[in-house]
Q: What sequence folds into this?
């Protein structure tokens, strides 16, 4: 399977723009993706025709809004192969989804001395919520280390898989190294010692066909905006048995069943976790996004990104001083974080901006990982279904110009 | 001139490619560190200051982006042989310039080349790292300390 990229690009109005007078080369989809017309139209239609608060409204458009909101939940459930829509909770983003688990599940299930196992490649959003949980409970954080190629060294983490282990939280795909992790194997291993597993799908779900049941994860968190959906909407998938046993996260409207002055009973899952008016338009927009991705096909998207990353890998290596972080293309998704000679990533990004090429530079919300890699910052080019090999060429050409512009090869020290 | 050309003026690129006053001052009486955690830029300043508050020698080490490195290089050139009082006036002028304010161009010398940075809010901290570190060096020295363990972060800059 493959994508007809030129045709797909027509679905994304923003990509027709120029930046600094040059054709826009958008290589920052790992930060946020662009949105297809189908999603933009859905948002528009919602506000023009269905805008009303969901649930409980006794009039036609409120009923329509509710139907579309719940249909989006069903679409997302289908997209990740949840057993039923009730396992899909709408949150603001992956970060909120992880915090929900750390609070609602963590506070009730994690005790002093328990081990929470993370990896050395986690984004701050799958690290800090667990640090907070450890501070509240006295649990201990441990980390699956990386090998020299930026892959998880599971053998070195074997010692953590015992009856002290309560939770493993692991990213499906690293936002810096690009590594695609063997999550199903980690889950099997964790379940064998009775631990629960949360998969951070913020990067993975947008690019890799994700089957929650086949993976057998207990929780899966992801963000809509990285997968062609709007900002402000994310998803927590949870195994129903776990969700039902968990206390609520936030209190307010919608999450209740009956409220009295001093007590309340809570609603069923998933509404138990959706206090207050949800991001209705955004949820419906996310529904449109997953339908769009299904139409193109996740396997086709993954194959296209694989082609791009292999091409980029080859071309980028022709640059003097190019140093990538993470494994070779066989084991990575569609992104490359790198340094170029001793050019600072911010200088690279600033120069590329001038050339119409949008990339990200910095620590990519993974400061401990960068410390481990021994670099303060990296530049990162990330690809999605709408990127082309010609855009990779534009990236490489711009980087070549940057090397000349900053005159790296002529650097000397002067004392005056 | 585009904003980009304004940011990366020839003077900036020259100081970045050929940084002045890099290294250590063996007989320094104040040594301090500065950090820009967002970019990972780090600088160490070593100063030999005489009894009148005159900077006899100043050198820097560390790493960072072209803007931070050029700013440090320009600063060390301007400060060497001058007093803390003169240095403080320059510091205030750079601060004002970063906020887009009017400054005495004559007095600022090559520092004027950093004016373009003010149009790139995320890069202002890069340019200010050297100066906030110098400010810490002055505070340490004037408090009778040698700066041991003193670190300033650009995140503390208001």
A:
């Amino acid at each position: 399977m493959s994508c007809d990229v030129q045709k797909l690009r027509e679905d994304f109005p923003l990509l027709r723009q120029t930046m600094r007078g040059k054709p826009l080369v958008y290589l920052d989809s790992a930060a946020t993706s662009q949105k297809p017309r189908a999603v933009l139209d859905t948002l528009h239609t919602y506000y023009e025709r269905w805008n009303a608060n969901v649930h409980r409204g006794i009039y036609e458009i409120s009923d329509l809004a509710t139907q579309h909101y719940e249909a989006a939940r069903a679409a997302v459930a289908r997209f990740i192969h949840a057993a039923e829509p009730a396992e899909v909770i709408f949150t603001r983003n992956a970060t909120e989804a992880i915090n929900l688990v750390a609070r609602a599940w963590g506070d009730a299930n994690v005790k002093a001395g328990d081990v929470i196992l993370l990896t050395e490649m986690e984004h701050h959003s799958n690290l800090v919520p667990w640090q907070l949980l450890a501070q509240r409970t006295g649990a201990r954080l441990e980390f699956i280390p990386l090998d020299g190629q930026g892959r998880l060294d599971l053998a070195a983490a074997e010692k953590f898989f015992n009856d002290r282990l309560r939770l493993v939280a692991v990213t499906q795909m690293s936002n810096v190294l690009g590594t695609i992790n063997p999550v199903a194997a980690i889950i099997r291993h964790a379940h064998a010692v009775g631990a629960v597993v949360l998969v951070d799908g913020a990067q993975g779900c947008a690019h890799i066909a994700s089957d929650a049941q086949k993976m057998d994860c207990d929780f899966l968190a992801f963000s809509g905006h990285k997968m062609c959906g709007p900002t402000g909407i994310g998803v927590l998938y949870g195994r129903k048995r776990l969700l039902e046993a968990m206390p609520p996260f936030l209190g307010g409207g919608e999450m209740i069943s009956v409220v009295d002055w001093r007590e309340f009973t809570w609603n069923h899952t998933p509404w138990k976790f959706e206090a207050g008016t949800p991001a209705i338009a955004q949820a419906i927009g996310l529904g449109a996004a997953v339908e769009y991705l299904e139409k193109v096909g996740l396997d086709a998207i993954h194959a296209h990104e694989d082609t791009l990353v292999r091409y980029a890998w080859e071309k980028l290596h022709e640059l003097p001083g190019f140093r990538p972080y993470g494994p070779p293309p066989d084991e990575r998704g569609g992104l490359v974080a790198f340094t170029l000679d001793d050019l600072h990533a911010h200088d690279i990004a600033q120069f590329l901006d001038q050339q119409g090429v949008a990339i990200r530079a910095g620590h990519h919300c993974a400061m401990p990982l960068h410390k481990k890699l021994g670099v303060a910052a990296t530049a990162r080019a990330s690809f999605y279904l709408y990127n082309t090999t010609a855009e990779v060429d534009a990236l490489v050409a711009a980087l070549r110009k940057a090397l000349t512009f900053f005159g790296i090869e002529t650097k000397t020290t002067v004392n005056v | 001139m585009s904003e980009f050309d304004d940011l990366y003026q020839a003077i900036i690129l020259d100081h970045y490619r050929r940084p002045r006053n890099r290294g250590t001052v063996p007989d320094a009486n104040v040594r301090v560190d500065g950090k820009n955690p967002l970019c990972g830029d780090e600088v160490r300043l070593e100063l030999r200051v005489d009894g009148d508050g005159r900077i006899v020698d100043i050198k820097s080490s560390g790493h960072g982006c072209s803007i931070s490195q050029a700013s440090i290089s320009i600063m060390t050139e301007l400060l060497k042989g001058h007093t803390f009082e003169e240095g403080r006036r320059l510091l205030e002028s750079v601060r004002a310039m970063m906020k887009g304010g009017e400054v005495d161009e004559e007095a600022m010398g090559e520092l004027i080349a950093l004016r373009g940075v003010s149009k790139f809010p995320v890069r202002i901290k890069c340019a200010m790292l050297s100066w906030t570190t110098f400010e810490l060096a002055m505070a340490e020295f004037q408090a009778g300390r040698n700066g041991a363990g003193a670190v300033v972060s650009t995140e503390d800059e208001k």
About this structure: Chain A has two domains: 5-30+297-410, 39-295. The mean pLDDT of chain A is 95.
